[in-house]
Amino acid sequence: MIRPLLARFAAGTLGLALLVLVATGGSRAAHADGITLTPTTPTTVSPAPIPNKPDLVVGFENVSCAYYPEGGLRLLLKVRVTNKTNVPAQENFYTDVKVDGVMADGAPHLTVGPLFISQVFHFNLPATPGLRVITALTDSTGKVAEWNESNNAALTRVMCP
Q: ∠ CA(36), CA(39), CA(42), 5° rounding?
């Protein structure tokens, strides 16, 4: 019962669509950006280029500032450097981490190549009350030739009590 009904509906819909195309002149050419497309113009989609270089990015996975009885006010950072391509970063490189524009203790952090996927490192820093601006820049000395050189920095803020 349902199958014949669906077949009739599909045939009716197809017929209606063809009627609309004929009535409106659906076979006319389309124009966009100086290119003329006709109904017989073959369309091709090029695959995305395959990266032949590493692509390093840096991000903050955890940022907190709290008072600890045994150590006072502390700024805790978890930083991850990730290679977004399947091509390893063969060279050694540095990641700068700065708090309010001043290099953090333990930075710059050295990553020894090759880096295939990612590396995580932590900072446990003394802090003072107020808003802190934390920045990170991976491959800060430009040693790694990358697929995308414009995505190597990250910035975050944290309020210390």
A: 80
